[in-house]
Protein: Phytanoyl-CoA dioxygenase (PhyH)
Amino acid sequence: MKDLADFHYPISDLFLQPKTASDWDQFRLSNEQIDFFHENGYLAGIQLLNENQIQALKKALDEVMDPQHPLHHLFHEFHSNESGDPNKVLFHSLGHWRIAEAFHDVIWNPAFRMAASQLLGDRAVRFWHDQLFCKPAHHGGNVAWHQDYSYWTRTIEMQHLTCWCGLDDATEENGCLQYVPGSHSWGLLEKPALAGEMDGLMAMMTEEQKSNFKPVAIPLKAGYAAFHHPLLVHGSFANYSDRSRKAFVLNVFADGTISNSDEPLLEGVPVIPKGEKMQGKFFPLIFEPKNR
Structure:
């Protein structure tokens, strides 16, 4: 049994890799899409997966959710229910790319890598960490309003990006993403408990921010993704519908990001001393613009 973090390249044939510059062109975002991202703080509706890839990832998800998985110790975090309330279940994990081939290789999905580089200003991209967010039918919990970077200040400078991709259709009924357009310009707010009260962040906002707090729902078909800025306020409501809402998240940053802590950046990861570059086994370089 291997730690797949040792492999900084695709290890299966799940995602066909481009071989020429023209092969990459099919994955390029338009200037209009990039402008929308910078104005609003997000870009949604980007197809990352076909049906075969969706099914492979769902199979892998079912396997890694088992607390008895033989490689369970490789998770950075594993919460069968982060909320602690059996009526509001939120499965949340970090580190499954180390365990399942499909989740390892989705990091090298060319559609994801190209979009990430473009949205980071055509920069080289390094992997930060992955997440799973799964809400079962009928009693799936919420994810409170928050900004991702409020949990990531141990890495600087802020040049991060989040990609959320559904493995089920995400609708308002089963707790799809909700974004607050333009909130990426509000600056850094305090961090709430991720699976706590939905509106915990509101107490940390100015009156002007509260008046501009106008969330929009982001329903997405399975296999489609939304990218968002590290300061964009977002969250998702509970799932009381008859359908589950399973999703994975890929977090990245521009190459050159450094550690801002002398503590481990993730559970089980050796310390990268404060001021040193984020690199090595757990933070692989996944895209260089010159290579396309």
Summary: The chain has one domain: 28-280.
